[in-house]
């Protein structure tokens, strides 16, 4: 539906085409703006460096690594939304 792309110069909000004319647009924009604020505040939940360090610190058995890091990224996205 939507995503925030944060860069040093600012933020870019990506919105799905189907959302633009829907009742969901306002809520989605508010939700994504929350991500922007957390990113600007340097909150650990929105720090790519903190996320990388946390994920790299996990001990994952060699045979279980395939797919683990993708699943970890999905988990981080969910935690950011809480």
Describe the structure.
By secondary structure, this protein is α+β, with helices and mostly antiparallel strands. The protein has two domains: about 40 residues; about 40 residues, no CATH class. Helices cover about 55% and strands about 15% of the residues. The chain is built from four helices and two strands; from the N terminus they run ββαααα. A two-stranded antiparallel sheet has the order 1-2. It starts with a strand and ends with a helix.
Q: Which descriptors apply to this entry?
A:
single chain; 82 residues; alpha+beta; two-stranded antiparallel ribbon; 4 helices; 2 strands; 54% helix; 15% strand; globular
Order of strands, widest sheet? 1-2
Beta-strand percent range: 5-15%
Compute the number of helices. 4
Q: Cα distance, first to last residue?
A: 17 Å
Q: Looking at the structure, what is the overall shape? A: globular
Using only CA atoms, what is the Rg? 15 Å
Largest sheet: 2 strands, antiparallel
Number of strands: 2
Q: State the helical fraction.
A: 40-55%
């Amino acid at each position: 539906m939507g995503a925030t792309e944060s860069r040093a110069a600012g933020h870019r909000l990506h919105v799905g085409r189907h959302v633009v004319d829907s009742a969901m647009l306002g809520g989605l924009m508010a939700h994504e703006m929350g991500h922007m604020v957390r990113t600007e505040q340097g909150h650990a939940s929105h720090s790519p460096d903190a996320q990388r360090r946390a994920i790299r610190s996990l001990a994952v058995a060699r045979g279980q690594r395939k797919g683990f890091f993708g699943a970890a990224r999905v988990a981080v996205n969910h935690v950011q939304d809480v």
